[in-house]
Amino acid sequence: MNEQLQLSEEMSAETARLRVDVYGTEPRAHVLEDLNFLNYRLADVRISPRVTVPEPDIVWHEGGEKSISYDGRTMTFRGPWPAGPIQKVVVAMLALRMEEVGLHPFHASAVRYRGKTVMFLGGESNHGKSMGQLEACRRGARLVSTETTVVDDDGRAVKGSKEPFIKKRTEGTERADKAAPEAGVAKFFGDMPTWELYTEPSNVDVVVVPSIDGNYSPSLAEMIPFERQFQTLHSLQNYFLLNELLAADWPMPIVDTEHLRLARAKWVTKFSNRPYYFVRAANPQVLLDEVDKVL
What we know:
By secondary structure, the protein is of the alpha+beta class.
């Protein structure tokens, strides 16, 4: 099979840039036709008008037997991969490039509420960050982010995704175990709350780790340093897909290194030096009643 370079495309998230080269026998306009998932996961991903990155971060040879490999710098796909695994790798690799320029994507929502920027952290359990954000907006908060909050080295929320849910999963990422996107909204709110956006960079003043379960009695506890760092690292590691399969028989290659993990842990220690609260509640309304006590 006579493969040729059919596309070299650059994607950017803030100042982080990623290059993808595709080799095949047929021309193609883009690596991915739909950027909704990338914007949902990394806040604001754009196709650059020209390629400036000197070497590819991802290479895809469309022909041959299916495989995936990573050499510490470049991820290489071979064979007929669906869009879903490709977009997952783009997220992981672009998240690494974001770290290199001092940007940290959190699996967290955030709002500007009662004069403070409050982050709802999707930590170990990830039970309530979206519902907490929606309830805060229902009470008049302005939206900073939904699925992802991008924080700079100084601890400021500088960017955020704006769609509360991913409504369509691409081939290769389908999940029967996930509830319909707005099932929780219907249960807790009836109709989707509305909001205005808050787009100015702002210091993250308070971090809330929510845990919503219909059986919980309400409780609020200030978290100790270990808990703060543990939950924060869970949120950051979410972007490197270390616990997911790309497709049957093919696990995600390890993109993390000891050096990166040490640097990330050091930054987590600095970021975690702010108020954190673990809040249990039966529903989003009770969750925000508890949060209101510390704002």
